[in-house]
Design a protein that fits this description.
The complex is a heterotrimer of chains A (about 110), B (about 120) and C (about 750). Chain A is α/β, with parallel strands linked by helices. Chain A is built from four helices and four strands; from the N terminus they run ββαβαβαα. In chain A, α1 links the parallel β2 and β3. In chain A, α1 runs parallel beside α2. A five-stranded parallel β-sheet of chain B has the order 2-1-3-4-5, with helices on both faces. In chain B, α1 packs across α5, α2 runs parallel beside α3 and α3 packs parallel to α4. The radius of gyration of chain C is 39 Å and the shape is elongated. In chain C, α2 runs antiparallel to α3, α9 crosses α10 and α16 runs parallel beside α17. The chains are: A alpha/beta (about 110), B alpha/beta (about 120), C alpha+beta (about 750). Chains in contact: A-C, B-C. The interface between B and C is medium-sized, with 30 and 34 residues. Chain A: This is Anti-sigma factor antagonist. Chain A: It holds the Pfam family STAS_2. Chain A: InterPro entries: MlaB-like_STAS (IPR058548), MlaB_ABC_Transporter (IPR052746), STAS_dom (IPR002645), STAS_dom_sf (IPR036513).
Chain lengths: ~110, ~120, ~750
């Protein structure tokens, strides 16, 4: 079960992801994220993973694609407060850069060569 | 972290061996005696891996794979087939149905544990 | 290589060892029951299991290896204080030892197989592993000794990129949909070692709106520090091989190891792919894949090596090393280093049988020719060809290098020269010359005689040497080489040579020659080989040689060999021994006198000439003119006092031995044949001029001529009556031992 809750914060827009983000949920999650981003997303977006029970490679790939999507319209994405299981997977894939809070866009370009 | 694994085999001793090996490694095991029985266990609970025999009464392994793949809640669950040398012909059929991981019986417990790690680790 | 018997012996000793280890371990355990903190006992216990695991691994007793591994890793935790030795654990360990004993009992002493009671076994393992949470690490990664920062993300301190494997992984879109989570494989991979670096390749990943979230767009470049080999790494990806492109490149450091491994592979002629697989640089799966790629390119077949490099399966250095290996193997195939020890009598049996085979094959060929069936003749010829090859191969089995025998003389020379206060250096040449083992064995004694004599009597004391303008250090040389189908062994010293005058005096004194006898220096020197020439009491009187020289002579004679002396006053003396390569079979040249057949060793035949009239006038010995030079001749019929056949045409066979040449007058020439030497019975041992006998394919007996002895005989006769010299001009019909017609007809 995947849910997405949108909160406004002083730094930009915060999306709280909860439940599971796995191969079973990625299709719905993609639609939810696209809906949240709207036509021309801008500014800084934070994905709060603190309530994410489960994350797999398909889910992580989705987060990367979301980052790409935002970059198309010069918006930035940052992953924050990962739950233990989300952190484990992101570290396994060496995607710590996604939730680096220093330099909002720095994370994206490391893998984009 | 322990996984929940469904083991489907009509041989009690084989189920026993697999169960002992898996529980010894800290996994939870659900047993089913054949394909039809296995489908009754797919009732919403999280299953990380299905380990299934090929040749079973009621619903055989291939039929089970097809049913699992058609079930939206379980269609991405990795399935590991246990087969004997003589059933190699079934392998192509099973792979076409969606079972991509195969272990040939007899196997070492270590082999089974490795497969669990690779598929659901 | 081990034979079955050695293997079962090893296995038996392992079983014994395993029981001992289990018993030791049990004693330690009981000790620990009293004092659970006894470190020595814990260490001993751990060591016992560790040893057992290691030995079991040697015999591929996987269940035992697995089981002892569990015991071992549990004990390791106890040793490191991470696990308390509770009564429950002690009990479990005792039960584990019982299981070890039971398993050892279950080992099949013949097949070496171990079938265990899987259910009970698994239960115990489960019980053991519940005490040990390191159990999920596969066997191959226990005690990773290159990386200490196991499982951590940052680069570890103890290793670097040089020591890391590089794994390049490209995932196919369907992989996720098929239920595979690449993360699981990564987690499993990280159990093999430390993932130093992981670069997620997401170039192909579209933006969120364009992507199919259930498809995979990722790839990975991974640096892995591990002690595992290529096949083990590949095995991690076994289930997803169909859903990814996988390249595994060895670390630079390991590449050197692989190259060394390739170099050290046993030298068998293998295909390049096999060499790479054997070294571990290429896996079976990759080889299959590369071979398929190679086959698919049927228009322009490329070498496998270039396919492998192009596909990134093997670095170019690896392919080059394998090619070099293949090359050296092909070159060195004949000088294979690995050896098998075989009882000499087995070889003798084989050679004996091959000998019989040679005869029966010749018999079959003879029958075929009599019958005139062309197909049959052709078959027997093929059979004979193979028999000949077998014969050669069988004889080679007996050939060993003379070097070992030569090397023994270092000690003899050192001891004897020290005894005599002389400074002598031994030089060895031709140590790799091969000789029949039987010959070498029987050569040791005569060689020892010659070497001792050279040191004792040949080489002067240092002061005499210096006075004679030589180096103070004497030189003794042992040499072996091939010369016209024979082996020549030389024992040479740089002493003062034989004293001909003294030998002559002594020979006269012993009544061996007449005081007035007109003998050349060489003939005088040969007298030292005469029986009764020397006795022990005058060893030191004699400045020449002579101690037991008759013994040397008879030993060499028994080997169908000859010995000659090359002595130069003041410069030194060389004893030259000529020996046949083997004792069992010779290439012969068949001739006949009337109805009697004789075989002459082919190596000694120089040419065949036709003799138009009996130019020796019925005499047994004489001279003929061979292209202007006198050729001593011997009429075999007269020499052996055979009934003269009324033959119109007779032939001369020119034979040579050493530097001597002579003609043998015979009736018919029959050509070459291979023949097995049958020793003469005791009764005929004294026969002069006959060295042995053989049985022809027709069943007839042929006598093998002992050319050296005939030469000696001829020598005494023609020397004594040089007036007998008759000259005539034989017509040359064939030159060289490989003469064509009529010499090359078959041996009938």
């Amino acid at each position: 079960m995947f849910t997405l809750e949108q909160q406004a914060s002083e730094a930009g827009t915060r999306l709280v992801l909860s439940g599971s983000l796995t191969i079973y949920e990625v299709r719905d999650a993609r639609d939810a994220l696209l809906g949240a981003f709207g036509g021309q997303p801008s500014g800084h977006w934070q994905l709060d993973l603190s309530a994410l029970d489960e994350l797999d490679t398909a889910g992580a790939q989705l987060l990367l694609a979301a980052q790409r999507q935002l970059r198309l319209s010069d918006a930035t994405l940052e992953v924050c407060n990962p739950s233990a299981s989300a952190l484990e997977l992101l570290q396994l894939l060496h995607l710590q850069g996604l939730f680096s809070s220093q330099g909002p866009a720095a994370s994206g370009d490391r893998h984009a060569q | 972290m322990g996984k929940t694994i469904l083991i489907v085999d009509d041989s009690q001793s084989m189920r026993q061996l697999v169960k002992m090996t898996l529980t010894g490694a800290g996994h939870q095991v659900i047993e089913a005696v054949d394909g039809r029985d296995a489908l009754t266990k797919l009732t919403g609970q999280k299953i990380n891996l299905i380990i299934s025999d090929v040749n079973m009464p009621n619903l055989d392994g291939i039929g089970l794979v097809k049913a699992v793949k058609a079930n939206p809640a379980y269609r991405f669950t990795p399935i590991c087939m246990l087969t004997t040398e003589s059933e190699q012909g079934k392998k192509a059929e099973g792979q076409a149905a969606g079972a991509k991981a195969w272990i040939v019986k007899p196997f070492q417990p270590q082999q089974l544990l490795s497969a669990v790690e690779k598929l659901a680790g | 290589m081990l034979n079955d018997q050695q293997w079962s012996q090893l296995l038996l000793s392992f079983v014994e060892e395993a029981h001992d280890l289990a018993k030791q371990a049990e004693e330690y355990l009981l000790q620990l029951e009293q004092t659970p903190t006894d470190e020595d006992a814990i260490n001993g216990l751990f060591r016992a299991m560790h040893t057992l695991k290691g030995s079991a691994g040697l015999f591929s007793l996987t269940p035992l290896v697995n089981f002892t591994h569990h015991l071992e890793s549990l004990l390791m935790k106890v040793r490191e204080g991470q696990q308390a030795l509770t009564p429950v654990l002690l009990d479990l360990l005792l039960r584990g030892l019982d299981e070890v004993n039971a398993m050892v009992e279950l080992i099949d002493a013949d097949s070496g197989e171990l079938v265990v009671d899987e259910a009970r076994h698994a239960g115990l393992i489960a019980a053991l592993t519940s005490h040990d949470d390191s159990h999920l690490i596969p066997l191959t990664t226990i005690e990773p000794d290159t990386c200490k920062s196991f499982g951590r993300l940052d680069k570890c301190a103890s290793c670097d990129q040089e020591a890391a494997w590089h794994i390049s992984l490209r995932l196919q879109p369907e992989i996720l949909g098929n239920g595979f989570d690449p993360a699981s494989f990564l987690r499993y991979l990280s159990r093999l070692g430390d993932i130093l670096q992981l670069e997620l390749i997401d170039d192909a990943l579209p933006a969120l709106a364009e992507m199919d979230p259930e498809s995979c767009y990722l790839g990975m470049e991974i640096d892995l520090c591990t002690t595992a080999g290529k096949a083990e790494i590949e095995d991690v990806f076994e289930f997803i091989r169909d859903f990814c492109t996988l390249r595994i490149l060895p670390p630079n450091a390991a590449l050197d190891d692989y190259l060394r491994l390739i170099h050290e592979l046993p030298e068998t002629d293998q295909k390049i792919g096999r060499i790479l697989v054997a070294s571990g640089l290429l896996t079976e799966l990759e080889l299959d894949q590369a071979l398929r790629l190679q086959a698919a390119d049927a228009q322009q077949p490329r070498p496998l090596g270039s396919v492998l490099v192009e596909q990134g399966m093997v670095p170019a250095q690896g392919v080059n090393a394998a090619l070099a290996k293949q090359q050296t193997v092909r070159e060195k195939r004949n000088q294979e280093n690995s050896q098998i020890r075989v009882a000499a009598h087995k070889l003798d049996e084989l050679i004996n049988l091959v000998g019989e085979l040679v005869i029966s094959a010749a018999g079959a060929q003879l029958r075929a020719q009599l019958k005139g069936d062309a197909a049959c003749i052709e078959s027997t010829q093929t059979v004979n060809l193979h028999v000949e090859q077998i014969r050669e191969a069988a004889l080679k089995l007996r050939m060993i290098e003379i070097g070992d025998t030569f090397n023994r003389f270092h000690r003899v020379v050192r001891d004897v020269s020290q005894q005599l206060g002389k400074d002598i250096r031994l030089e060895i040449q031709g140590a790799d010359t091969e000789l029949d083992k039987a010959v070498i064995d029987r050569l040791a004694d005569p060689l020892t005689h010659l070497v001792r004599n050279a040191i004792d009597h040949g080489i002067e004391p240092a002061d005499q040497r210096l006075a004679a303008g030589k180096s103070a250090e004497g030189h003794l040389r042992l040499d072996a080489y091939h010369e016209s189908g024979m082996i020549v062994i030389e024992v040479a010293d740089d002493g003062h040579g034989l004293n001909t005058r003294r030998i002559r005096e002594k020979a006269v004194a012993r009544g061996l020659i007449d005081a007035q006898a007109n003998l050349s220096d060489h003939d005088v020197q040969m007298l030292i080989f005469a029986a009764g020439f020397s006795t022990a009491d005058n060893v030191s009187d004699l400045s020449g040689r002579g101690v037991g020289m008759d013994v040397v002579r008879s030993a060499i004679d028994a080997l169908r060999g000859t010995i000659e002396i090359d002595s130069r006053p003041g410069e030194g003396c060389t004893f030259r021994i000529r020996l046949p390569l083997t004792l069992a079979i010779i290439d012969g040249f068949l001739i006949s006198l009337g109805d009697d057949y004789f075989v002459i060793p082919l190596d000694m035949v120089t040419e065949c000439l036709e003799l138009e009239a009996d130019q020796l006038d019925g005499a047994a010995y004489g001279y003929l003119d061979l292209r202007g030079r006198p050729l001593p001749c011997l009429s075999l019929a007269a020499h052996f006092k055979l009934r003269e056949a009324p033959s119109k045409r007779r032939n001369i066979i020119v034979v040579s031995h050493g530097r001597q040449q002579a003609g043998l007058i015979v009736d018919h020439l029959h050509g070459e044949l291979q023949t097995v030497i049958k020793p003469l019975g005791q009764l005929f041992q004294h026969l002069q001029g006959i060295g042995g006998s053989t049985i022809l394919g027709s069943g007839q007996v042929a006598l093998i001529l002992d050319i050296p002895s005939l030469f000696r005989h001829l020598h005494t006769h023609v020397e004594a009556s040089p007036a007998d010299l008759r000259t005539s001009q034989p017509r040359q019909i064939a030159a060289g031992q490989q003469g064509e017609t009529p010499c090359n007809s078959s041996a009938t």
